[in-house]
Amino acid sequence: MKFTKTLLLGSAAGLMAATGAFAADLPVKAKAVEYVKICSLYGAGFYYIPGTDTCIKLGGYLRAEVALGTNSSYGAANGSPAGAHNRLSNYYTMRAREDLNIDTRTATEYGVVRTFFDGVFTWTTGGYQGSGSATGSTVYTGNLGLNTSGATPALVGSSINGTDGNTSAGSLGVYYAFIQFAGFTMGKAVSQFDAPWTNYPGNNFDGLVGGSGTVTGVTQFTYTADFGQGVTAAFSAEDATAYYQAGNVNLTGATATSMIGGTYGSNAIGGSRSPNLVGMVRVDQAWGLFQASIAAHDNHVAYYGATENTGHPDDKWGWAVQLALSIKNIPTGAGDVINVSAVYTDGATRYNFQNLAGSSYSMFGSSGVAYQSVGFAYAPDTVFITGSSQETVKTWGFRGAYTHNWDPYWNTALYGAYAQAQYGSLAKTALCGAGGAGGVFGGLAGVTGCNPDFAVGQIGLITRWTPVKNLTFSGDLNWTHLDQKYSGTVGYAGAGTTAKPAALYELKDQDSITLLLRAQRNW
């Protein structure tokens, strides 16, 4: 009995000891791991990438819009076929777009290393352009998606939309992709020449003339110096090939038909030789900002003819200068702002007639004296004739907007722009003769005035409603006026791409009125 009692007590003690040992081996409740940690170094919206000291911020928007009276997502109705103003022109163009941007920043001993990417996924209404042939064939110029060769297919009849209406098609674009380190910006970013609002001093309209605007970024290598007190300066070497080639045109190939179509000869741009060189100084203060920019653009032509032994004109450097001013906190209301800029170019036309506006116009309208009226204009960087040097085209212009906030939910902006292009004596003699009554166009029957100079004026009104934060509905009404300097009438041979017949046309100024309705959710 004593032995049994001893055995039981010993077993109990051993069991208790074993239980304690097992308990010691059991896991205790671990401290919660913070998988997403807020990064407060660079403002709201940044988080640390897990396991790193790099902060990241995601952003973007989703946009749905319809532009009335234009064949583009939102520009003036000019060119082919929009400027025809007939059954080939779109009454509307619709677009849906998702934008995604990724901002990363890392603190280092040399300062912050930043990368920024902004890409867009877009679906846009297709355009249908008639060929004018007896078979009635049509060219589809929209988002085919299935065509990877880059060629525009000719489609006929019911096959125009392919097998599924191209419901899965669309396009991918890259706006910005750059690295910033120790004052340097390397990659695709807004040009240092541009005003901070690029093409949009207060508008949604894409085709505003009167200044530069690389809203989709230009590849560059830039150094920016910060002098403190809001004063910065930058020097930049920027890619000239994507957005800044308005044309180096050999007028020897010009014809009356091509001129009415908005081209004055054959474009003879050679290979790229130099990036555009840009300098900028800016002052940012509580009252607003002031910026001065200057750019140099190399005009490099290939040959007078098809082969090397035909010769070529020497390179000619063009330049542009722009001043921009923003005034904030004006007495008319909280948040009201005035943005204005002015520009002058000599052989660097795209710094005034920016790439989304273009510098070629061919527009038709009504007439009381002829079949219809036509207005046309063209502003390349330089022109020449076979055997001559390049002659620059000079332009000047301005743009601006006043934005008034009615209350926290509604605001309205009144905006406008003006740009003028002026040719030299070589161009005017070749196109219009020494006295304006000869040359390619001036000597034609019915032409009473010949001058390739022209101007474009624009005015618009936009109202925005933001019922909740980051959701905005807007309506933007724009009027664009082409003031061309040709007068009289001309016998035009017609063109299949605009379905215009051979007839007598009046030379006359032209207008375009467009309206954009947009819904946008930023996030």
TrEMBL record:
<keyword id="KW-1134">Transmembrane beta strand</keyword>
<keyword id="KW-0626">Porin</keyword>
<dbReference type="GO" id="GO:0009279">
    <property type="term" value="C:cell outer membrane"/>
</dbReference>
<feature type="signal peptide">
    <location>
        <begin position="1"/>
        <end position="23"/>
    </location>
</feature>
<comment type="similarity">
    <text>Belongs to the alphaproteobacteria porin family.</text>
</comment>
<keyword id="KW-0813">Transport</keyword>
<protein>
    <recommendedName>
        <fullName>Porin</fullName>
    </recommendedName>
</protein>
<dbReference type="GO" id="GO:0015288">
    <property type="term" value="F:porin activity"/>
</dbReference>
<keyword id="KW-0406">Ion transport</keyword>
<keyword id="KW-0998">Cell outer membrane</keyword>
<dbReference type="GO" id="GO:0006811">
    <property type="term" value="P:monoatomic ion transport"/>
</dbReference>
<keyword id="KW-0472">Membrane</keyword>
<keyword id="KW-0812">Transmembrane</keyword>
<comment type="function">
    <text>Forms passive diffusion pores that allow small molecular weight hydrophilic materials across the outer membrane.</text>
</comment>
<dbReference type="GO" id="GO:0046930">
    <property type="term" value="C:pore complex"/>
</dbReference>
<keyword id="KW-0732">Signal</keyword>
<dbReference type="InterPro" id="IPR003684">
    <property type="entry name" value="Porin_alphabac"/>
</dbReference>
<dbReference type="Pfam" id="PF02530">
    <property type="entry name" value="Porin_2"/>
</dbReference>
